[in-house]
Design goal:
The complex is a heterodimer of chains A (365) and B (376).
Chain A: H1 10-21, H2 29-37, H3 41-65, H4 71-79, H5 81-113, H6 120-136, H7 138-163, H8 170-173, H9 181-192, H10 201-204, H11 215-240, H12 242-247, H13 251-257, H14 269-300, H15 305-321, H16 326-357
Chain B: H1 2-16, E1 30-40, E2 46-53, E3 69-76, H2 79-86, E4 93-95, E5 101-104, H3 106-111, H4 114-122, E6 131-135, H5 139-144, H6 153-162, H7 177-185, E7 190-197, E8 202-211, E9 214-219, H8 221-231, E10 237-242, E11 250-267, E12 270-286, H9 295-324, H10 332-339, H11 341-347, H12 351-356, E13 359-370
Parallel strand pairs in B: 1-4, 1-5, 5-6, 6-7, 12-13
Antiparallel strand pairs in B: 1-2, 2-3, 7-8, 8-9, 10-11, 11-12
Helix pairs in contact in B: 8-9, 10-11
The chains are: A mainly alpha (365), B alpha/beta (376).
Chain lengths: 365, 376
């Protein structure tokens, strides 16, 4: 049995970062990149990964300076109580919106792809309950599930990428190989939303073995989704072309749908993929729900995060069900993306601030 | 204790909400649609034919061969309405997820297929690898045909276009919804596999040429070979050349390695399509095997003869597409966009006019590697 105070290992740290990022958006990332960055789809995905890696490393360094504290507490240490608490509230709002967006995105996609007759609310509630069940068991259980599911999620994506290679055409990929810079930069804010969730680093460092939460492991955690995203963009644009990739709602599912095994075995490979993708969505929702409640608990200086999971669940559900249609969901997504980018930049600012003023809390301090 | 109670209630609630109950359809309650045909009626409405699998006949039990499909035709204004109307014909749930073939009737295709494309692209059940073809006649006749070699005409045609096209260069290789969608978004013209159907036979024959998604003409089998060379979508197959009786009469080459590279070149605003073909093959059959020349001379001569035949075939297909119909069904526009994105941005809209001036420059090399078990 896992002891409650066991620290997380290095692999679990990597898995938590990667599985939180690799969520619902995996199935629509090539569309987001092709639509927002056009010819810059590939480069903007790469640059977004690099930028996120810089943010993540900043978060890691800052987190390790305040080894025993989460972002909610060291914000107060760094900026004073009123401002620190205020930013803490913003962060909680961001995490809650992120959870609700992943939940809604997952439910909408699953309803459209597989469960046409099942009410949206039922899909959402089922997923939320399952995520609540996992989150209640704490960070150790979440980390173990992430560690277990990450290879499965990676394998499923690699299979989709590898098996659809027959449809790949270098000529179709060419337009995105030599992108105009301004298009690339223009598309980046939207592409970065695909990495939403890496902010988990701000909260999990106190739970990881001191030496294991280092910069290389942080980079690996970001590199896994970045490489998979890049491969997905390459394959989708190579298989469908740039303009069709902008029009297909779930290009990754479309890739899974062009895979054809000879014979009756796996005639519908996309169904296998969707089932495995549910795992990716599940780990994202559970991880985000957990850090939402954890940050709320830390903000109020309390200990029992479980109560807050029960309190936050209906709020997350309400936030997820509120957008009436696709344009509204996209609007919320964009705003939350901007909020995430703002938070990341704030962390970089704080890091510089902390480095300049040399404020550091030691383990006993 | 309270926590355990809450957990238990959560788990209990989860089982009540178990997702999937709403969508559960027992497998035998599915009406699997294998093929879908679209014809045009005299009053301009659509006649949609569904080929529905009769599951019992697919069980593989020994005994007398029973009918394995049933065709249901519905007069309707759109594909969605016809699928809805299908519910009036049987108690099972229509399921398109295993649909193998979409057939456009010739008259409907001549009138334009655009009206039905949106449904085919949008419907989640229809896969992008579902084969698409155009009937030489009515689509219903293709689906009504009962080939003795397989349970359904839709399955036979699907197998021909997806599997046999790899070995027979006369079968058009781009058969699916994905190909149609890709070109539809790019506003490019297409060609679709042509089908001849008899009472108990189906035959893949040539390809229908579409301009602005209206059928305007046909490629013969040999022109399909030419088209495939320009597309770079031919990898192996039999190639033939007609010779004088003294030089062998008729030569059949089993080309086991065909390498094609098509690259557009733009110089001073003039477009040239450079296609380089390299073929390796073995002699499969010679009409008159009693030629007197030595093997080396003969192989060189035969290689040249095959090169000339391919050149004529490719030229014929290209000229038919470009000059007769003004249709770029060779995906040259896609190559221009890939290699010259800036040029394409500026001139893409004028492609129909530009294509008429694009010349094809062919370079073909044939190497005959082996001659079989007897000397030439």
């Amino acid at each position: 049995m896992v002891k409650k105070h066991d620290k997380l290992g290095g692999l679990q740290y990597i898995s938590l970062i990667s599985t939180t990022i690799l969520g619902v958006i995996v199935i629509s990332l090539p569309k987001i990149a092709a639509e927002s960055a056009q010819e810059g789809a590939l480069l903007s995905t790469f640059l977004a990964g690099v930028l996120v890696a810089i943010f993540a490393v900043s978060m890691n360094i800052l987190g390790r300076r305040f080894q025993k504290k989460t972002v909610i507490e060291y914000l107060v240490s760094l900026l004073g109580k009123p401002l620190g608490k205020f930013l803490g509230v913003i962060l909680i709002i961001y995490f809650m919106f992120s959870t609700s967006l992943v939940l809604r995105g997952f439910s909408d996609a699953l309803k459209g792809l597989l469960l046409h007759s099942t009410p949206l609310e039922v899909i959402m509630v089922s997923m939320l309950f399952t995520a609540v069940y996992l989150s209640l068991n704490g960070i150790n259980a979440i980390a173990k599930i992430s560690e277990l599911f990450l290879p499965i999620i990676i394998l499923s994506l690699i299979l989709v990428i590898g098996l659809s290679i027959n449809s790949f055409s270098y000529v179709r990929l060419r337009p995105v190989l030599f992108p105009p810079l301004w298009r690339t930069v223009k598309g980046m804010p939207n592409v970065i939303t695909a990495f939403l969730g890496y902010e988990i680093i701000l909260l999990i460092i106190p739970f990881v073995e001191r030496k294991k939460a280092d910069i290389p492991r942080t980079l690996i955690g970001i590199a896994i989704p970045t490489v998979l995203y890049i491969l997905l963009v390459i394959m989708a644009v190579g298989a469908f072309g740039l303009r069709p990739s902008q029009q297909i709602n779930y290009p990754t599912i479309a890739l899974a749908r062009i895979i054809n095994f000879p014979g009756a075995f796996a005639d519908r490979f996309d169904i296998f993929f969707v089932i495995l993708w549910i795992l990716a969505a599940f780990t994202s929702v559970a991880n985000l729900l957990y850090i939402s409640s954890l940050s709320t608990v830390r903000l109020f200086g309390l200990r029992n995060y479980q109560t807050f999971i029960y309190i936050l669940t209906p709020i997350v559900y309400m936030l997820a069900i509120l957008p009436q249609d696709l344009p509204e969901i996209r609007k919320v997504n964009t705003y939350v993306g901007y909020l995430g980018a703002g938070i990341s930049m704030l962390v970089v600012g704080l890091l510089i601030f902390a480095l300049v003023f040399g404020k550091k809390e030691h383990e006993n301090g | 204790m309270v926590r355990k109670g809450i957990l238990t209630s959560l788990i209990a609630l989860s089982t009540i909400f178990a997702v999937g109950c709403w969508d559960r359809v027992e497998i035998e309650k599915n009406a699997f649609i294998l093929g879908l045909g679209i014809d045009l009626e005299e009053d301009n409405s659509l006649n949609i034919t569904y080929q529905v699998a009769l599951l019992d006949s697919f069980k593989g039990e020994k005994g007398e061969k029973s009918k394995s499909t049933q065709q249901i035709s519905i007069k309707s204004n759109s594909l969605s309405e016809s699928r809805d109307a299908l519910l009036k014909h049987f108690g099972d749930t229509p399921n398109l997820s295993h649909c193998k073939l979409i057939v456009f009737g010739e008259e409907y295709a001549r009138n334009g297929i655009k009206s039905s494309l949106d449904y085919l692209f949008r419907e989640p059940d229809i896969r992008r690898i579902t084969s698409v073809c155009v009937a030489k006649g009515r689509a219903k006749e293709v689906l009504d045909s009962e080939p003795q070699t397989a349970p359904s005409s839709a399955m036979v045609i699907d197998q021909i276009v997806t599997q046999n096209s790899a070995n027979n260069s006369g079968i058009f290789p781009f058969p699916d919804i994905g190909y149609l969608h890709r070109n539809f978004i790019r506003e490019s013209d297409v060609a679709l596999v042509g089908i001849n159907a008899g009472k108990d036979t189906v035959e893949v024959s040539g390809a229908g040429i579409f301009k602005d998604y209206k059928l305007v003409g046909w490629f013969s089998d040999s022109e399909v070979i030419g088209q495939r060379f320009i597309l770079g979508e031919v990898h192996k197959g039999l190639l033939t050349a007609d010779l004088s009786y003294e030089m062998g009469d008729r030569l059949t080459l089993n080309a086991y390695n065909i390498n094609v590279r098509t690259i557009p070149k733009i110089k001073d605003g003039k477009i040239k399509i450079e296609t380089k073909v390299f073929i390796e093959g073995d002699i499969n059959e010679v009409g008159n095997p009693t030629t007197k020349l030595d093997t080396k001379t003969l192989l060189e001569f035969w290689g040249k003869a095959v090169e000339n035949k391919i050149r004529d075939t490719v030229d014929a297909a290209y000229k038919k597409g470009r000059d007769t119909y003004g249709v770029d069904c060779f995906e040259i526009d896609e190559k221009i966009e890939g290699y010259y994105p800036k040029f394409w941005k500026e001139h893409g809209k004028e492609w129909n006019e530009l294509f008429k001036t694009a010349d094809l420059d062919l370079e073909i090399k044939v190497k005959i590697r082996r001659v079989g078990l007897i000397e030439p």
